[in-house]
Amino acid sequence: MSTEKEVGFVVHYFSHLNVAGIDVTKESIQVGDVLHFKGHTTDFEQTITSMQIEHKEVAKAKKGDSIGMQVSDKVRVHDKVFKVI
Fold this sequence. Notes:
mainly beta
């Protein structure tokens, strides 16, 4: 069975782009990681295929970074983001 570590939370959702703005607050994340988005009405997992910091493609984000990544489902501000291990 997989475990999860909290890595951050959603700070914005750009619905016209299906992009989540995420503050990374605990663990680093990288392309290829599986993230679990969890909130009152949000509950899905998605693999990071690409992410951006300040409109630049990056392969890894560390604690303190704010990233944008495309998501397959709607997320909401304050949804928690976990890395599936």
